[in-house]
Amino acid sequence: MALRSDSRSRWRRKESSMSYKLLICDDERMIREGILHAVDWPSIGIGTVATAKDGEEGWSWAREHRPELVITDIRMPKLDGLELLNRIMLAFPYTKVILLTGHGEFEYAQQAIRGRAFDYVLKPTNPEALITVCTFALEELSANAKRTVLATEEEKDESERLIQQIVRYVQEHFKEQITLETAAKQVHLSTVHLNRVLKKEMGTTFLEYLTHVRIEEAKRLLLSTRLTVHEISFDVGYRDPKYFSQLFRKMTGSKPSEYAEDVRGNSGESGRKVSP
Q1: Based on the number of CB atoms within 10 Å of its own CB, is 160 exposed (0-12), middle (13-18) or buried (19 or more)?
Q2: Which intervals of the chain are annotated as region Disordered (predicted)?
Q3: What are φ and ψ of residue 98, in 5° steps?
Q4: Burial of 109 (0-12, 13-18, 19+ CB in 10 A)
């Protein structure tokens, strides 16, 4: 279902600056048209307005366009307003649904409120009442959006604080026998959660980061000290010099005993070969 042609010329110019979409769903054309034209929708923050003649048509449009606001009759052919409400709430729980109800349908309206409808409006529809209810719904949508932004910012701040803690922990303790488990205990997280945060924020796992720090320190020691490979292996946290040598070669392309010579050779300097 497309945006109605009679509303297109009126509102299409403003769609780019509006963020909310509205679906009007009623099987009576006069009611649909009345609601469509009774309110200056852009003035309250609605940029796109679509109409549907029954619940099935409305649901089809809602699935494709995900409206933030839906105004629907309760009694309709094919798919009634309560079933449409249930489907929308399951698929798009943030959407605000306003029910149109007759004087004899209060029981249905109350059932709808319990089913998470935002509110209901009596027919025949009073434009002022409709504006009031829609404005409240949009204000709640805006407030929810702000809370989501704040929660996202708080989550980001927490992730940054966590990363700082882990970086400091590794920098201070990489010479020791630290593991993902010991690091997770330091920040009171599960190992899975910690690795997930590290992967998201740093693009690496804990073990990969720890290995990087240790190998970088080993490279520094090989270039600036006269320590043996065996001594450097222990100094950067590896108790098995053979494993350290294999890992170092994998990470750098050089054996530890030849690293300083390779680096200085590439730079045109003469150097020494480190003892194993």
Answers
A1: exposed
A2: 254-276
A3: -110, 125
A4: buried
Spatial distance between the Cα atoms of 240 and 257, rounded to a whole number of angstroms: 15
For residue 85, give both structure tokens.
Answer: 């409400």
**Is 167 exposed, middle or buried (CB count within 10 Å of its CB: 0-12, 13-18, 19+)?**
middle
d(CA 240, CA 242): 5
Q: Per the structure block, which two tokens stand in for 111?
A: 């059932």
As given in the structure block, the two tokens for residue 193 are: 């959660």
Contacts of range 41-44, beta carbons closer than 8 Å, 24 or more positions apart: 41/11, 42/11, 42/14, 42/18, 44/131, 44/134, 44/135, 44/138
Angle, helices 106-114 vs 81-91, to 10°: value is 10
Is 82 strand, coil or helix?
helix
Cross-strand partners of 71: 24, 98
Rounded Cα distance between 2 and 186, Å, is 56
For the chain, which domains are there?
A: 5-125 (3.40.50.2300), 208-266 (1.10.10.60)
Average pLDDT, the chain: 83
Q: What average pLDDT does the segment 246-255 reach?
A: 93
Tell me the pLDDT tens digit for each residue of 220-243.
Answer: 999 998 899 999 999 999 999 999
Q: How far apart are CA 86 and CA 104, in angstroms?
A: 22
132-181 per-position pLDDT tens digit: 889 888 888 888 777 777 666 677 778 888 999 999 999 999 999 999 99
User: What gap in Å lies between CA 252 and CA 33, rounded to an integer?
Assistant: 72
Which two three-digit tokens encode residue 69?
């606001």
How many angstroms separate the CA atoms of 45 and 62, rounded?
19
Which residue is associated with the tokens 């309709």?
A: 76
Other beta carbons less than 10 A from residue 37's beta carbon: 13
